[in-house]
Predict the structure.
Amino acid sequence: MFPSEFNFVAVSSVAEAVQAKVVAGEDGRFLAGGQSLIPMMKLRVAAPETLIDINGIMGLSGISRSNGHLNVGALVRHGDVVASEVTFGAIAAAAKWVADPLVRNRGTMCGSVAHCDPEGDWNSVLLATGAAVVAAGPQGEREIPIGDFIAGAFTSTLGEDELVVGLRIPVPTGRSGGAYLKLERKIGDYATVAVATHLELDAAGTISAAGLALTSVNPINTKVAAAEAILVGQQPSEELFAEAAEIAAAAAEPRDDVRGSAVWKRQVVRTYTKRGLAAAASQAQGS
């Protein structure tokens, strides 16, 4: 099936992109990698009247560290994240799990985040690491904590005329580690279950900050704040991680489907949480 007819607008600046969206209104969509949008258009699930191509905007293709944050531009491809030497923990671990090489070479991290697919990987990682989305609109730029950005399945709090121009992810100042464990039926598939973990340790080896989030087992990517809370202030241990895993499993509400039963998926959450926290702790202790 072919997409419906649409207008195509190529822009060269963020201001031009925002103005084009103002003109196009709710029937306009931004295009970066197009790995989610184009298939939806071909299936006629989405039929925007105007596509606003942002690939010509300079300055949105970089990954860098500054002011205590990892900054990821809107045109950074998943493959760029895989190849980057400035990422860390769960960010680095998750990058290679995103889709397949073809999609990673074209799709963008920010585009995936903005899509808010509950089976997508990045939003769980951002929840675990305490990231924020940088959006630009007619009133200028603003930062939106990722927990406030995700409004529902395929729904965000992004304004109608706003464009996601980047991500800001806090860089730990001390010892830290992270992991992203993903169960998929085949390479490139969406997650059946996935768990993102992030730990920071103080000088005494005590957990000073913790992040834990789940993919594909709830209507949205889910931050397990209760499990994070019991980790902070404690020494890493199998018993502690098992307790956190029970809380994570209880927070999961998977469905029976062709990928497996709800009971089995909840057990995977439990197992992956323990493994992910152990991997994050080991990485932090060795850093």
Notes: Residues 175-286 form a domain with the Enolase-like; domain 1 fold (CATH 3.30.390.50). The chain has three domains: 7-53, 63-170, 175-286. The mean pLDDT is 97. The CA atoms of residues 82 and 95 lie 5 Å apart.
